[in-house]
Every structure is written in C-alpha cells, then in structure tokens.
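Notes from the 1:1 (GR / supervisor)

We went over the backlog. Supervisor wanted to see one worked example end to end before approving the batch request, so GR pasted a single chain during the call. The sequence is below; no edits were made to it. Supervisor asked that the structure be written out right there so they could see what the output format looks like.
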Amino acid sequence: MSGAALARLRVQLTYLCRHGRIARLSTPHLFTELIQHRKLYERDPRFPRLADKVAVKDEVAAILGPEWIIPTLWHGRELPARPHWPLPLVVKSRHGCNQRAFVRSPQQDWEQLRRRTRRWVTRRYGYWLDEWLYTGITPGLLIEPFVGASGVLPIDYKLFVFGGRVAFIQVHLERETAHRWIVLDRDWRRRTVSTDAPPCPRSMPEMIRAAETLGGDFDFVRVDFYDIAGQPKFGEMTFYPGSGLYPLDPAELDAEMGGLWQAATEQRRRNARSAASL
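Structure output shown during the call:
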C-alpha cells in the first residue's frame, strides 16, 4: 500500500472512531470532512509559517501592528537550566497544539518541565493524524509572559473565518478548572446550548476586523485572540481545528460551516477564472 493510501486509511479510521461514519473525502460537504480533505490534499506553503507560534508573530505584527502581539521572552530547542524571566510565564511548543505549561511559582519543578518539553521537541507532532503542515515547522519551544489576571487564564476567543468573513466565534471558558466552550455567531447569538454565553467583550469588533484581515486569502482559517484589560491580543492561526475529530454540537453546525467553506472555495475559483480571462 502506498504512503498516500495509508494516510487516507488512517484518516478514515480516526474519523470513523470519533464520528461514527466514514468521511466523504472525494466529495466533502461537512466542516469536519473538509478538514480531513485539507490534511490530505492541501499543501499551501503559507500554512507552516502561519501555524508556527514564533514566526507568525512577525507576520501579524507587520499586518496589524506590534501592539497585537504577546511578546516572546525566549525561544529555542531546550529550556535553559533555570528560568530567567518574571513569573508567571507560559512555556509552549512552537510546532504543536495543546503543548503548554504555566509556571506560576519559583517552587514549581523546572527540571521536570525541562524533561517534559524535551518530549515535545523530539516527537513528530501531527504524524499520526496526518496533519501535514506541522512537518514544515522547526520543532522548538517558546516562553511568553502570562497574560491572565490574578493567575487565571484569559477567555479564549476563536474566530472562524470563511472566505475572509467571520461567521462564528467559539469561546473557551475556565480552561484549567471547569473547561467548557460555546459557539456564537458574529452578532453574539448563541448557537450551542451547552453553557451560557459570557458578555461580549468591547474589543470584539476589533477582533473580527483583525481576523478578517488575516484570513482574507483563505477559504477557511481559525484565528484566536484574547481580550486583556480591553486590549485585543493575537493568539494563533489554526488550519486544522481539533483535527476535524470533535463532533460539533449541535450537529447542524458541521453542515453549516461546511457550506460556508465550500462557498468560499467556489468564490475563489470564480475569481481565479475571471482573473485568468482578463
């Protein structure tokens, strides 16, 4: 079996396991199916740089301005023997997702964290889920200042951009203690019933404009932000949210988001054909 055939088989098995059905890879319609199709077939050379948590900051600062950026205190392949920066701080991998640690106290076991982050760097992130873009990011680590208030993580606002327009906002609450999330539309109307919506931050219009600016050239991208004392701050750009393996609630969102993605793809193709005919 060829490498491409093995990748398709892995994708189908993981999709079947999580969604209870086979993905329509040749004719994807659902949002989660389109993510599988992107993983297997889209090789946009911009993806790795924009998903690199270190490199993307230069790109975003050049477009939106340096005030949108959470500063990088350090980056490299192995943490130094001891922290040299004010606490609290955040340690992340630059090349993967859900690889982060919060250091709040000098009593925290820094050596244990060094061992943990070595595993982040040496393991091939994205391989088992066939997330191609991560192969183009140099494995490494970065350290940022902790931006939450009183040691509490800030609310995470994840804006879903289809063809340059924000359609949905996924809000993540209490990520360390009672993690839950809710999906709202761009007018802050709730689309999920799992939890109550928090107040809309005053900076949300700025976040929407920024996300649409950053995502204007893509059929779909998710752009994440924080609101820090009323100031919007860029988090990251994601091209495979959840690797397309988390069922959406309600399920109708999967089809609705998929339709928006397909419409954006078709519009881009029409624009390309129109430009070619001039």
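Supervisor's comment: DSSP finds seven helices and nine strands in the chain.
Batch request approved.
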